Amino acid sequence: MLIEVQDITKTYIMGDSEVHALRGVSLGVEHGEYVAVMGPSGSGKSTLMHLIGCLDRPSTGHYTLDGTPVEDLDDVALSALRNRKISFVFQSFNLISQLSVAENVEVPLIYRGTPREEREQLAAQKLASVGLAHRRNHRPNELSGGECQRVAIARALVSDPDIVLADEPTGNLDTKTGEEVMAILAELNDSGTTIVMVTHDIVKAKHAKRLVQMSDGKIDRQLVGEEKDRIINQFEAMTAVPAA
Amino acid sequence: MQQSEHLRIGVRSILAHKLRSLLTTLGIIFGVAAVVSMLSIADGARREAVEQIRLLGTNNIRINHVELTGDLKELADAKGSSGLTHSDGSVLMRNLPNLTGVAPLRFVDEPVLFGNREATGRVVGTTADYSRVTDFKAARGRFISPLDVREGKRVAVIGAAAKAELFGYRNPIGRKIRIGDAWFTVVGLMESKTIREARASVIQLRDINTDIYTPITAVNSRFPAPDRKGGVSEIAVQVSDANQVETTSGIVKRILTRAHNGIEDFEIVVPAELLAQAQSTQRVFNVVMGAIAGISLLVGGIGIMNIMLTTVTERTKEIGVRRALGATEDSIMRQFLVETVLISVAGGLAGIVVGAVMARAINVFAGWETVISMYSATIAFGISGLVGVLFGLYPARRAAQMDPITALRFE
User: Fold this and answer.
1) Which residues in chain A have their CB less than 8 angstroms from residue B325's CB?
2) Which residues of B are less than 8 Å from A115 in CB distance?
3) How far is C-alpha B292 from the geometric centre of its chain's CA atoms?
4) Which of A194, B45, B328, B340 is 20 to 30 A off residue B62, Cα-Cα?
5) Residue ranges of the domains in chain B?
6) Per-residue pLDDT tens for B60-106?
C-alpha cells in the first residue's frame, strides 16, 4: 500500500468555533492507482489532499506513506518526503513568476541538491515531454493557461515522484486544454505513476480507476469498474450539449 | 549548493525592483558613509598630529621659559631665579646621561632686512646642536658651527620661507642681511619643512620655515637683555630613547625646579603627551559622528526590515509553492536572509564610495586631512552585513513559519 490513511480527523480553530474538516476518513491507495476524489466544496477533499501531500498533519488518526508513518515527522523530514515522493499540480498552476519556465521546472531539484547541469538537463527533458521545449526561456506570464499547466506538470514530473496530487487541475482551463491536461495525466498513470486527483466535475474523473465521493468530512462511497463507468456515462449523457 | 541558488534568486529579486531596492538601501548608504568619513577624519587627524609631533621630534622634550608676573615675579626675584637660562641646559646635560643633545634657543624681536625687503619670521639665537637635536638640516651652505658660537660670529642661517621673503629666487649664500642695527652674513639655507596648520588637533606650531638662526653668543652680545642675563626662551632636549621621554621629562622638571630654587618659571612640553591630548579631543568628535552613524544604520536597518516584510507578504504564494515542492522552513528562512544581506551589503559598498567622496569633499572644502584606510572600509562593510542579518532575521522567520497551505491559498 502506497497511501494508507486510517481514521483521520482534522479540526481547525476558526476564531471561536471549531471547524471539523475531516471526521474520520480511511483510505488506501495502491501503487499505480488513479483515484479521483469528488465532492462539493467544504466536503473536506482539499484537506484530505493536503494531508496526503504532507503539507499538514492530521489532528487524530494515522497516515503511512510508502511505509513511513508521517504524523511524527519534523519539518525537515516532512519536506524531504514531499520533495522525493510527492508532486503537486494545482488549479492555479502556481508557477513562480520571477523564474523562467525552465527554472520553474528545476525548483524541486534545487531542494534535492541536484547539481546544476543535471537539473537543466532533466528540466529540458520534461519540458520536451509536455511539448514546451521552445518555451523554456519564457516567463510564466507570457504563456497561455494550458501551457502553464503543462509547465506545472513538467515540474511535477521532474522529481520522478511516486504520487502526483492534482487539485482541480483543469479548473482554470477551457474544455479543450482541460482535456489535453487530463490526457497527459492518464498517460502518466499508464506509465506507472500513482495519481490522486481532486475534482468536482465527474466527467473529469472518467480516466480514474476509482472514484471516491466525499461529503461533510467523510467518504460517502467508493466506485470502481463498471459501476463507476456507468455513473459517469449517465452523468455525461445528462449534461452533454446536443450536437447542432 | 542551495546557497548559490538563494544568491541568484536574491539578486534577481533585487533587480526586479530597482527603485525600491535603491530607496531601501539609502539608510544603510548614509550610515556606512558616515562611518567611513568619520573614520577617515579620525585617521587624518591622527596622522596630522603624528606628523606635527614628528616635527617637534618624537624623542624630544621642549622646555619653555614662562614670564612670571605680579607676586610670583617678586617671589622669583627674592629667591634669585631669573627664568630659563643657558646654564640650565648645561645642568641637564651634566646630570642626565641619556640626553644626546641640548640646544638653547633665544628668540629676539628685531627687524630683519635685505635692502628694502623685510622678513616676518623671528631671529633665533641657538647653538650648533640645534640642527641635530631637532633633525632640521641646512639644504644649502651650512648650519651654525661650534666655532661660530664660540667666537660669536655674525652669521645667519635662514629658513626657506624667510629666504623667499628676503631674496626671492636669488641665491642668499654670502649675502649680508641686517638684523636690528647689525650686519649678519648668510651662510646657509634650511631645508623646507611641510607644516600643515593644525586644525583637528590641539597642537599649535610656529612656522619654523620663517626662522632666522644665528649663534646665540652673537645675539647675546648684539642684543643683550639686561634684566635676564644668559636667559633663553626655550631649551630643546633630545633623549636617546623615545621610550624614556616621559620618565626623563619628570626628572628634568625636578632638576630644573631645584636649580630655580623651587620657582616654576618654565614649562615642559612633551610632544608625545600632546598626541594623547589631541586624541582625547578627537574622541568627542568620534562619539558625535558615531552616534550619527549609529542612528542612520538603525533607521536604515528598520527600512530594510520594513521592505522585506512587504516582500515576504508579496511572495506568500511563492513561499507556499516552494514549501509544497520540498523547501524546508530553514531553506525559506535562508533565502530571505540572503536577500536582506545582499541589499544591505550592496548599500554598504555604495556607502563606502559615498563616504570616500564625502571624505574627499571635507578635505577639499574644510581643509581637514582625511585618510581612507582599508581597515575603515572593512569595518563599514562588516557593519552593513551585520545590519542585514539583524534586520533580516525577523522577516525571514516570518516567511519560514508561514503555514504552507494558507500560503498556497493566498491571492
Assistant:
1) 82-83, 87-88, 107-108, 111, 155, 159
2) 1
3) 22
4) B45
5) 2-53+278-409, 67-264
6) 888 888 888 888 888 877 777 778 888 888 889 888 888 888 999 99
